[in-house]
Design brief:
- The complex is a heterodimer of chains A (310) and B (213).
- Chain A contains 14 helices and two strands, in the order ααααααββαααααααα.
- Chain A has 310 residues and is mainly alpha-helical.
- Chain B has 213 residues and is mainly alpha-helical.
- Chain B has one domain: RNA polymerase sigma factor, region 2, helix turn helix motif (Rna Polymerase Sigma Factor, Chain: A).
- Chain B has ten helices and no strands.
- The chains are: A mainly alpha (310), B mainly alpha (213).
- The interface between A and B is large, with 53 and 59 residues.
């Protein structure tokens, strides 16, 4: 390899994008040519400089906001004309578009033929006349979301059809948080509902009810076990307002030791330093040197210092 | 590439990188039949790397959120046309790359080199985006912080002068460690084109930053 070829390949050499043979040739050349070795050193310094740009870490709050926005957009999408058209013309995977087009064409031809041969004015009416609307069994369909149809059973004698559907109706509950039914739903939503945005919103509402033992348990549960860091962060904020006792302290120290999100751990330190409790001091001192995040280490060190001084 | 991506995703809370190929295939089929829950599980798998890339190419969380939403909406709309002829991850990232490229083209370089608008009531001096998210808080060493701020400003300005495609290729290669062949697949172009982009990007950055290298 000559100098020009080597210098053209230096970028790929340093980014490990050369084959073994080319790599060996570049290395051999660099060992013998000071000009190319200098160019390689300069490129290495450039890479090191560019590494100084810290990569932005998506925060849990941002992730929650993104998911909520996407969910809303998908809801709008589901209700749009686009979804309607798609539901009419969906082509299942494995079925060629040509076959679907052919089927549609045959359907259209059949319709045209039927239209041409339809009974004209003056021809005898069908004995059945206009079809009767069947009554809905159970309830009207307002606000009903159909998630599946489990049975379609025609009755050849009457011509009626029985359709059995899995459906859910939208229900709005409104009342004070003192209402046990409202609270029950809120507690369910806070700890068990599968939408993290809703869990987070629920915790935000419940944070003012921290005096209630059941709510308090729900907040501590979310802090310890919720899978979503944004929800755990909200739980930390909510726990800040509840009465301090060993349970609360242990839940917070547990989160500080084990939560895998540095934003949550940093928020826990902010809550801990609000309380004059010497039991937390050894944990803060330990994490001031062992936490994986430099920022959390710094916060723990500062909190431990302040705690020791007071 | 998948290893790099999984590592990136793993650091995002709530992400679900654990789906294996069979599970993913089943979820895709369910999602194609209109199952929103299945689609959301697929989103969980890829959202980490999508959001991280979005944050790299735009200047604000709001814009990153828009890119996230636009990417997944496009995926949702086009999912019915996915025929399992390529890997799903390749197909997903190709959509995301196109969204990012479109954004970079729309934004243009003029806007990229501008300082971000300060929030109401905040210090009017522009704050480096990556300084606001770095964990090494600058107050520990003001001199180093000042130096870092200047270096950061120069790097950002240099990156902003790359063409949208060069910028994207460089971000994916240098900061996400992807192989050029994978980048080519995701951008829907050849490995050679990506190689040329990386070479040009490096040359431009070298020229832009030579005073501080």
């Amino acid at each position: 390899m000559n100098c020009q070829v080597v210098q053209e390949n230096l970028t790929f050499y340093l980014y490990d994008e050369l084959g073994a043979e080319e790599r060996a040739a570049v290395e051999a050349h660099l060992g013998a040519c000071t000009t190319c070795a200098r160019a390689a050193a300069e490129l290495r310094r450039l890479r090191a400089l560019l590494d100084q740009r810290a990569l932005p870490e998506p925060s849990p709050e941002l992730l929650v906001r993104c998911r909520q926005a996407l969910e809303e957009a998908l809801d709008r999408e589901a209700a749009s004309w686009r979804a309607l058209v798609r539901s009419w013309f969906v082509v299942p995977p494995g079925v060629s578009a040509l076959r679907v087009t052919t089927a549609l064409t045959i359907l259209l031809l059949g319709f045209s033929l039927g239209w041409t041969l339809r009974p004209r004015a003056g021809s005898p009416a069908t004995p059945a006349g206009r079809a009767e609307s069947a009554p809905w069994v159970g309830a009207d369909l307002a606000n009903l979301r159909i998630s599946g149809i489990s049975q379609v059973a025609p009755d050849p004698q009457t011509g009626a059809v029985r359709i059995t559907m899995d459906a859910e109706r939208q229900v709005t509950l409104e009342g004070s948080l003192d209402d046990p039914r409202i609270r029950e739903v809120m507690l369910y939503a806070a700890n068990r509902y599968n939408n993290p945005g809703i869990r987070r919103d629920t915790l935000e509402v419940l944070r003012d009810q921290g005096d209630n033992p059941t709510v308090r348990e729900a907040l501590l549960y979310a802090l310890r076990y919720d899978a979503n860091a944004g929800v755990r962060l909200e739980a930390v904020e909510a726990v800040q307002g509840i009465a301090w006792d060993p349970d609360v302290r242990e839940a917070l120290l547990g989160a500080l030791r084990t939560d895998d999100n540095p934003g949550v751990r940093a928020a826990v330190v902010n809550v801990l330093i609000e309380h004059a409790d010497d039991e937390m001091l050894p944990v803060l001192e330990e994490l001031a040197s062992t936490d994986r995040s430099p920022y959390v280490r710094m916060k723990c060190a500062r909190a431990a210092r302040e705690r020791a001084q007071n | 590439m998948d290893g790099a991506c999984l590592e990136l995703i793993h650091r995002v809370p709530g992400a679900n990188p654990q789906l294996d190929a069979l599970e993913e295939r089943a979820l895709i089929r369910q999602a194609q039949r209109g199952d929103r829950g299945a689609f959301e599980q697929l989103v969980r798998k890829y959202e980490g790397s999508v959001l991280r890339l979005a944050l790299q190419v735009v200047r604000s969380e709001e814009e990153a959120k828009d890119l996230y939403q636009e990417s997944f909406l496009k995926i949702y709309r086009a999912l019915g046309r996915f025929r399992f002829e390529s890997r799903f991850s390749t197909w997903v990232y190709r959509v995301v790359m196109n969204v990012c490229l479109d954004h970079l083209r729309r934004a243009g370089t003029r806007r990229e080199v501008q300082a971000p608008a300060p929030a109401a009531g905040s210090d009017p001096e522009p704050v480096e985006f990556f300084q606001t998210v770095a964990e090494e808080r600058p107050e520990l060493d003001p001199e180093r912080a000042l130096q870092g701020k200047e270096v950061g400003r120069r790097i950002r300005a240099a990156l902003a002068r790359l063409s949208p495609r060069e910028r994207l290729v460089f971000e994916l290669k240098h900061y996400q460690g992807m192989k050029l062949r994978a980048i080519g697949e995701y951008c829907g172009t050849s490995e050679q084109t990506v190689k040329n982009c990386l070479f040009r990007a490096t040359q431009k950055l070298r020229a832009e930053l030579k005073e501080i290298v």
